[in-house]
């Protein structure tokens, strides 16, 4: 291991800390490919082995595409989760073509992502050439070059390349001989997070200790990185030890950290541990979030299995609980007592709106069951104003694995049809179900089976 050699001797300019808190975004949020993007990749696959034809396709696609479509296609190619490995030789030509467009603004995060991908795909010479080109473009400015190397470390960690992380860190370490606090903190943050991402949490923890010796107090970010790193590997004793150190350092356990813990337990099917942690969150007044729901619900095997066929999912909370295992039931009961539904539900005289954005399929399913229960309860009480209209917003599938095919929308549609709901897809917004307030009330009050 290189743990003992990872000593920081770096320098940032005085304004770097401010710069760090206003980091440039990576080009665009990841979105599902458009139909045009799918056709483009299909054409590239058909042109395999014909570089001239592939370059013509790339030139035509970039020239006729919007900035978002072109960059999104590139992001799909270089993603660590890409399924287009057979097109790896076309990443650099596509990046070069995009860089020639009039709308392109050089972005260190984007080029770092391309470099890490090229190196991971066995194109080290191309990657090295792009590194040299980038350093020259930055004019050898210490701060900018250092930040670029930090971006490079981060990109290599996303590709899960340990060698890339260490080599990029070595470049950063050799950049300067003097030390400046803002540079050193940024460098520590980057390497600690990246070491955890490549499953080296013990090395990362050693870096935290070195960071402390160097005079920097570790932030909640470093502790969370360690929690995630140990938890992902199932090293729960170490994860709990870090949580105690985090509290001893003066940081309270919050929703973000708790969600990391839940995700770790869920990844290793420790459902009883998840239930215990949810109780701890409630006892400590740590609020639940949509991500809390996502982490828990995605870990329930029975629910995941039920959602494979939407035509037969239970339509009532009681029916659902009757099909769950004991630990799964405990998890669901802990969740439904939280405020997540109320946070997603807006109620006023003009509109009753439920927003399912950010919810994974299993979460949206449970929230829909809760929503029906809450609405029936309010209508039965008789002291709630009936909104003019009800809306359930589920999205049109822009961020789904297949663009335009939203699993949540498909779920809501099936539930509405099977429950004979008056709510229909909005003509003006295909990602939304809408119904008149009184019609929805009459439907829920007269429904013939137990929900």
UniProtKB/TrEMBL annotation:
Gene3D superfamilies: 3.30.1370.110, Tetratricopeptide repeat domain
Keywords: Repeat
SUPFAM superfamilies according to UniProt: SMR domain-like
Record InterPro entries: PPR_rpt, Smr_dom, Smr_dom_sf, TPR-like_helical_dom_sf
One Pfam short name: PPR
Smr domain: residues covered: 354-438
Ranges occupied by PPR repeats: 184-218, 219-253
PANTHER family reported for this sequence: OS02G0120000 PROTEIN, OS03G0856100 PROTEIN
Family classification: Belongs to the PPR family. P subfamily.
Name of the protein in its database record: Smr domain-containing protein
């Amino acid at each position: 291991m290189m743990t003992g050699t990872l000593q920081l001797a770096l320098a940032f300019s005085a304004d770097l800390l401010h710069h760090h808190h206003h980091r440039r975004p990576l080009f665009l949020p990841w979105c599902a490919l458009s139909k045009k993007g799918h056709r483009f990749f299909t054409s590239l696959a058909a042109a395999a082995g014909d570089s001239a034809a592939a370059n013509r396709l790339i030139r035509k696609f970039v020239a006729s595409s919007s900035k978002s479509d072109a960059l999104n296609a590139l992001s799909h190619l270089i993603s660590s989760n890409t399924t287009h490995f057979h097109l790896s030789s076309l990443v650099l030509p596509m990046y070069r073509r995009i860089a020639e467009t009039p709308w392109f603004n050089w972005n260190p995060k984007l080029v770092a992502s391309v470099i890490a991908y090229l190196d991971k795909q066995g194109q080290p010479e191309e990657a090295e050439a792009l590194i040299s080109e980038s350093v020259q473009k930055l004019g050898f400015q210490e701060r900018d070059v250092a930040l670029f190397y930090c971006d490079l470390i981060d990109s290599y960690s996303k590709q899960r390349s340990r060698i890339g992380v260490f080599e990029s860190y070595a470049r950063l370490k050799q950049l300067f001989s003097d030390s400046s606090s803002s540079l050193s903190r940024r460098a520590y943050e980057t390497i600690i997070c990246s070491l955890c991402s490549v499953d080296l949490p013990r090395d990362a923890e050693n870096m935290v200790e070195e960071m402390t010796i160097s005079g920097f107090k570790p932030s909640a970010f470093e502790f969370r990185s360690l929690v995630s790193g140990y938890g992902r590997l199932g090293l729960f004793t170490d994860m709990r030890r870090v949580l105690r150190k985090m509290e001893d350092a003066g940081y309270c356990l919050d929703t973000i950290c708790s969600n990391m813990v839940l995700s770790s337990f869920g990844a290793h099917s420790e459902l009883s541990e998840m239930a215990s942690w949810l109780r701890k969150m409630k006892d400590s007044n740590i609020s639940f979030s949509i991500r809390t729901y996502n982490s828990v619900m995605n870990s329930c095997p029975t629910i995941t299995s039920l959602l494979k066929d939407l035509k037969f999912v239970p339509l009532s909370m009681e029916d659902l609980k009757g099909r769950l295992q004991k630990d799964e039931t405990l998890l669901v009961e802990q969740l439904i007592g939280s405020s997540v539904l109320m946070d997603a539900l807006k109620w006023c005289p003009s509109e009753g709106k439920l927003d399912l954005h950010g919810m994974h399929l299993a979460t949206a399913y449970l929230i829909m069951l809760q929503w029906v229960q809450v609405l029936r309860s309010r209508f039965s009480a008789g002291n709630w104003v009936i909104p003019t209209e009800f809306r359930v917003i589920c999205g049109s599938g822009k961020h789904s694995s297949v663009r335009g095919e939203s699993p949540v929308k498909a779920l809501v549609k099936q539930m509405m049809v099977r429950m004979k709901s008056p709510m229909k897809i909005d003509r003006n917004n295909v990602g939304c179900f809408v119904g008149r307030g009184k019609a929805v009330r009459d439907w829920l009050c007269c429904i013939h089976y137990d929900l």
